[in-house]
Amino acid sequence: MSAPTTQRTELLDALRGFALFGVVWSNYAVFSYWLFMPHDAQVGLSGSFLDAPLEAFHTMLIDGKFYSIFSMLFGIGFGFFLGKGSDGLWRFYRRMLILLVIGWLHLRYLWAGDILFLYAVLGLVLPLFRKLSDRALLYTAAVLILSPIAIDAAVILTHGRFDPLGPVLRFHEAREAALGSGTVPSMIAAAHGGWTEFFDSTAHTWSFRFVHLIESNRPPKVLGLFLIGLWIARRRIFADVRAHAALLKRLCVLGFAIGLPSSVLMWWTEGHVGYPPEPSSLLRAVSYAFGVAPLAIALASGFALLWMNERWKQRLLGLAPMGRMALTNYLMQTMIALALFTGVGLGWGTRVSAWQFEVLALAVFVVEVRWSRWWLARFQYGPFEYVWRSLTYGKVMPMRR
């Protein structure tokens, strides 16, 4: 017997809130400009002796894992739309087109690390896979997630003649030449300048984001995780956790068994990253493929297993309001970061060490958890969710409770 809809929603919302925790932790290394600073400058910051252990912790347990959980949740959400028939499918297309606009505005004018634009583009492709069998979904997902290994191997074996990044890189280089200065210098200038420097930086970095997405083979990885989410929705695994407890335990154990050693290897190969890939960097692609997705599945499965314990469920429920306002909270993380780290705000960029931006990220998460609870006690949707939902359904939705 399926669990009530409210229970299903609470679990997925809480998991979405948990994913936002990892997202803010991962992104604030970029927001604070720490990631772009020379090593000598990093060492000169307060508490820099913690940089190495924190970087190892991030690489092994944070980086990639939480956007992967978000991607699976996106696929689950698509599965729910399919359950509403043809009207649900067309509403999904409309929803993706609106997200495309939101993502583009976020990417172009606020932060180049945006993931919403990519989600919307791939979301428009996702319905093409809806008629695949469950087995075909999983096989296709595995091929997509492992495809970066084959892509990097092809670049190496052809000595760069096969170059999927080529057109995007040439486009970015042409824009850089036209704009002058450069991506990283413009970003550092934004840390201490005003609005002019900030908008000069965003003019550079949005095209650099496309370079990074193609260079890291992100699109096939994300699409593969979408398909895993669709498979989860079909099997109703999160709709009735107790009925699937045995499967969740196997996924949790297997995910940790494969993902943890691979993530350790990912950390060890951290320096072997670049484009075009070299034989030494191929190991990085292998470790990423076997480290990120399996560990993300293990974390999501473990979260669902904890949900079955009433005491743990009451603790995890505190994350549900944040998950219900995931779009608002994701965009708020950007706005708070700009106020903290750029010259249009406090200008702390390049002045905080790893442990300091970690503490700030944790503080932002705590504030968002509490604020989300306060907001949803008074309103039915988060601010951006309200706009997104109203545009999707083509009518003004009731806001106040």
Description:
The protein is mostly helical. The chain has one domain. The chain has helices at residues 5-31, 39-43, 51-62, 65-82, 85-109, 116-125, 134-157, 166-179, 183-192, 195-215, 218-235, 245-268, 279-307, 310-316, 320-324, 326-341, 354-376, 383-393.
List keywords for this structure.
mainly alpha, 401 residues, 18 helices, single chain
List the helices and strands and how they pair.
Layout: H1 5-31, H2 39-43, H3 51-62, H4 65-82, H5 85-109, H6 116-125, H7 134-157, H8 166-179, H9 183-192, H10 195-215, H11 218-235, H12 245-268, H13 279-307, H14 310-316, H15 320-324, H16 326-341, H17 354-376, H18 383-393
